TrEMBL record:
Residues binding L-histidine, per UniProt: E83, G84, T85, R114, Q128, E132, R259, Y263, Y264
Record keywords: Aminoacyl-tRNA synthetase, ATP-binding, Cytoplasm, Ligase, Nucleotide-binding, Protein biosynthesis
Cell location: Cytoplasm
Protein name: Histidine--tRNA ligase
Keyword Cell membrane tagged: no
């Protein structure tokens, strides 16, 4: 039997790459905390019904991409979550988060699962970071969440990103638009891709975001949904645009950007990058005023987004080297007594907030010194037989080669000075 490999469409995030992920998570935590979003962690699997109702059976995600299985008891259909919003909304309802009144600002990160053809930026297990703002119908809420997405992406140094914006109005607007759209599309029916032909009766709005080139061309000249918005929807959309302008956030209207289901309302947006090839969308989001009620919760307007972490990491890789964590000290020792002292010293240094890599090899000093150099440590600490007897340690600054012998107690009591020197050497 051959070695077992990771399943198709799944990937290990190895130590050499994990720095990017931590960077994104740290920035997200920092930026979202400033806007008082609280993290929520919901289960990775849920009842299949939740996604069928919460995402919609007419979508690709529910129609073709879900990992669904029967519970061991044989009485329940269970699905690995393909996205985060449905679970958050279920939890919001189940735990009466709405009873706290006002708005709830929540964010999450974690693995999502979709049965798709794996390619760059598209996996079967992938990761999202997302947020939901529940309880406000104000256009300021739409703009707050968009601004937080752009803040996060900008804080990571990403520049050539484009914000696409559209409005899908309310249920009534969409009903009107649907008729106009179908009327326009009927004569082209034979030229549409197969999925789009099927959608013509089930969910015609989704034809607009078909990935088929020929269908896209036809969609380009279709009537525009914003021409079918009622007064209230128009006012909401105008205000969103005005507020984005006030914040200096550039956007372009994309008439083909839609979410085709009844509980999606008003604002829809995507943030894209030209540097990603076919999988260009990094962030997708919008308003979903009907979803909480659809899942039997109290009428609650809401807006949110999700960023695809793998795509974000691909962009970061084009920009910068993986952030690595290099130790302050690399600690080497040889001989029974020296090795025991080194272990104790490593723990004491860590308790003083230094990062310390302890060499466990017991090999010749020459070999240990080579590893010290490779570790990227700022300084090397050496304990041999002589140092062990005297309870001293040899401190060698690796960049300059400068060395001093100090008592181990003195090393520990001069932690503050050492730390200053290390910081200086790290940022020349
Ligand atoms: P796409 O059109 O690329 O399939 P989507 O509309 O299905 O995207 P959403 O459900 O809006 O995507 O999810 C938000 C984000 O999550 C996407 O913009 C993308 O960055 C990321 N994403 C979605 N599906 C995958 C996947 N299979 N692998 C990696 N990232 C994904
Ligand atoms: Mg998709």
């Amino acid at each position: 039997m051959g070695a077992i490999q990771a399943l198709r469409g799944t990937k290990d995030i190895l130590p050499e790459e994990v720095g990017y992920w931590q960077l994104i998570e740290d920035k997200a935590r920092e930026i979202l905390a400033k806007a008082v979003y609280q993290e929520i962690r919901t289960p990775i699997f849920e009842q299949t019904d939740l996604f069928e109702r919460g995402i919609g059976e007419a979508t690709d995600v529910v129609g073709k991409e879900m990992y669904t299985f029967t519970s061991r008891g044989g009485d329940k259909s269970i699905t690995l979550r393909p996205e985060g919003t449905a679970g958050v909304v279920r939890s919001f309802i189940e735990n009466n988060l709405y009873a706290q009144g006002g708005v709830q600002r929540l964010w999450y990160t974690g693995a999502m699962f979709r049965y798709e053809r794996p390619q760059a930026g598209r996996q079967r297990q992938f990761h999202q970071i997302g947020l939901e703002l529940l309880g406000s119908s104000s256009p300021r809420a739409d703009v707050e969440v968009i601004a937080l997405a752009t803040d996060l992406l900008q804080s990571l140094g990403l520049k050539s990103l484009k914000l696409d914006l559209n409005s899908v109005g309310n249920g009534e607007d969409r009903q009107n638009y649907r008729e106009a759209l179908v009327h326009y599309l009927i004569p082209y029916k034979q030229e549409l891709d197969q999925d789009s032909q099927d959608r013509l009766t089930r969910n015609p709005l989704r034809i607009l975001d078909s990935k088929d080139e020929k269908t896209q061309k036809i969609a380009q000249n279709a009537p525009k949904i914003i021409e079918h918005l009622g007064d209230e929807s128009k006012r909401h959309f105008d205000t969103v645009q005005q507020l984005l302008t006030d914040l200096g956030i550039e956007y372009q209207i994309n008439h083909c950007l839609v979410r085709g289901l009844d509980y999606y309302t008003h604002t829809a947006f995507e943030i894209k990058s030209d540097d990603l090839g076919a999988q260009a969308t990094v962030c997708g989001g919008g308003r979903y005023d009907g979803l909480v009620a659809e899942l039997n919760g109290p009428d609650t307007p809401a807006v949110g987004w999700a960023i695809g972490m793998e795509r974000l990491v691909l962009l970061l890789k084009q920009l910068q080297q993986a952030p690595v964590h290099q130790p302050d000290f690399y600690l080497i020792s040889r001989g029974k007594q020296a090795e025991a002292q080194a272990l104790v010293l490593s723990q004491k240094l860590r308790s003083l907030n230094f990062t310390v890599e302890l060499d466990l090899s017991g090999s010749a000093f020459g070999k240990q010194f080579k590893r010290a150099d490779r570790s990227g440590a700022v300084a090397c600490l050496v304990i041999g037989d002589a140092e062990a007897v005297n309870q001293t340690v040899n401190l060698k600054w690796l960049a300059s080669g400068e060395q001093t012998a100090v008592a181990q107690t003195q090393l520990l009591s001069s932690a503050e000075k050492l730390n200053q020197k290390i910081q200086q050497l790290r940022s020349p």
